[in-house]
Amino acid sequence: MATCFYSPDEQEAIRRSRQIDKQLQQERRSLKQEIKILLLGAGESGKSTFIKQMRILHGSDYSEADRLDFRHTIYHNMLKGTKILVEARRRLQIPLQNSKNQENGKAISSYHREGELSDEDFQPYVTPLDELWKDAGIQSTVKRSNEFQLGDSLTYFMKNIQRVGLLGYLPSREDVLHSRKATRGIHEYNIDIRGVPFRFVDVGGQRSQRQKWFQCFDEVTSILFLISSSAYDQTLLEDRVTNRLVESVNIFDTIVNNRCFRQVSIILFFNKTDLLIDKIKEKSIKDYFPEFPGNPRKLGDVQDFLVSMFNSVRQDKTQEMYRHFTTATDTGNIKVVFNIVKDTILTKHIQDIMQI
To answer: How far apart are CA 207 and CA 42, in angstroms?
Structure first.
């Protein structure tokens, strides 16, 4: 009724103002309906593999053409990884079982190609790769891989070299998941999950890439912090001194205690459980963390210790710390875990929307 006291022009201005306010409120609600998940963690913790799984489970799965694009990356993973092994074996002075593999080692060490590698280009390397991998000297070197930098995927691909080395090779979905290419910059992936828009933001985990993380902190719904749980005996690629697990704890410290994330759910993924299970059979975590209190051969004791390391740096212990043990290359495992995580995220998200 108060509008009766305003001139027609003033009434029109008020009407337009209210319309704009209403539109802005609708846009704000629309923005809040999108769930933005930021993937953080040190390099090689499995962030990009997790994104691949989201595409397989909830997006448009990899077509034959998509999978073919990964072929060069897989060839490069195998050649570069074996080249690292050849150099490490020489440096560690581990004798070869078969002296003929000296020549195979030279053939692999000569690989310097940067461009695309076709299946025909890869053919001359198949036999040298296969024979080197079967050599006891190379296998002894693999067992000491914590003393140098070797990608986790090499063993998987070398066990499948007869298939990967065929002319006309088309990578399988599992091959795509095991392929490794360092993330540079910021990559966003929009995936609709049962009518809810999710935006996954993946940023590089190497030290040189972390300065870009702060560009992604606005409007974050949840943070998935990934940890390579099997890296307790490894050092960083960047300085070859810092323990990878210690580095991961230090990064988590800066994230979990950041004032920007007081209202953001932070979920820990202790990744590479499959590799952890194999590693604790041969390498005691107590050799690297003398304060470890349990049985170093018992998976549960090791996992409890890992959780306690990350929990110890949290300043606010009243907030629940969500954590899951994952194997990012296992689609079934990620499907089960993410369904649980999704419910946690959606519950928190609904609470936020109700406050608008």
So the answer is: 8
